[in-house]
Amino acid sequence: MTEVIALKTAFTELPPAFNNDHVEWLMEAVLRNRFLPCPDPDSIFVGDGNFQAVGAEFLGHFIRKGGVRPDSRVLDIGCGIGRMAVPLTQYLDFAKGSYCGIDPVAGGINWCRQMISPVYSNFEFRHLDIAHSLYNPKGAIDGLELVLPYEDRQFDFIIMTSVVTHLPDEEVSAYLREVERVLAPGGRLFMTCFVVDKVAAENPLKKRDARLGFQRYDEGPCWFVPELPPLAAVGFDDGFLDGALARAGLSVTTKSFGHWRGVPSDHYQDLFVAELDRGDR
C-alpha cells in the first residue's frame, strides 16, 4: 500500500461521473491510443520510463490524489516535451478546461506547439528562458527572480513533477512564492520530490534505488548524488518542503512517500499535494 501522511482532510471524491473504474479505463485508453502524439525516444530529454505509460500513470494520480477536474485551469511548470500534457488532452473539457505548459528547454516547447496545440486549442506552451546549469545554462532569467508570465489567481491546478528534484533550496522557495500568487483560492499544487529522511538515507531495507545514494551537501537542507552533477538529482531534508510550502501560504493535504526509497507505493518519487485556502485573495 502507498505510505501516505494525511495532514488534513484531502480531496476524496472524484469528479462527477469519474469513479475508479472510469479512471482506470481512461488511463488504459491513453496508454493504448496510437493516435496520440508521441515524441521520438531520442527527443525525450527529461525523465526516464515509457512516455505513454508514465503519462497515463500520472493522469491517474492527478485525478485521484490531486483532484484535478475536467474544467480545471492547469499550469504545468517544467512541462518538458509534453509527457503530462498529452494524457490531459483526453481529460480536460475542451470548452471549460485549459492547460498552460512552460519550460526552459525550447526544443520541448516547439514540439508541443507543433504536435498538441493545433489539435487542442485549449493547450498552450511557452518557452521561459530560466537559467539552469543542466537544462538551460545560458538562460537569461535567474531562478531566484522568477516571475511567472500569468496574472494572479489564474489556475486551479498546478503541476511540478520532477522540478524541485533539480533545484537548489533557494529556488524552490522562489518557485513556490510564484505558485501561491497564480493559484486560485481552493486550487492545488501537485509536486513530486525526493524527501531524505532516516529511511531514505540509511536504506535499512536495502531496496532503495541504487542510483540515488544521496549524501548531504553542506549544512543546508540539500542532498546530492556524488556521482552526478549537483542538480541532476536533488533531495531535501524531511520537513524542508513542508516548511517551504507553509511559508508560501500553501497547506499540505497529502504527503506520500514513493517507492524509490524501498517502501511499497504506487508512485516512484515522493509527492505533496498542497492547497491554497479559499479565504486567501
From TrEMBL:
InterPro entries: CFA/CMAS (IPR050723), SAM-dependent_MTases_sf (IPR029063). The keyword Methyltransferase applies. Keywords: Methyltransferase, Transferase. One of its GO terms (biological process) is methylation. Gene3D superfamilies: Vaccinia Virus protein VP39 (3.40.50.150). One of its GO terms (molecular function) is methyltransferase activity. This is Methyltransferase family protein. It comes from Phyllobacterium bourgognense.
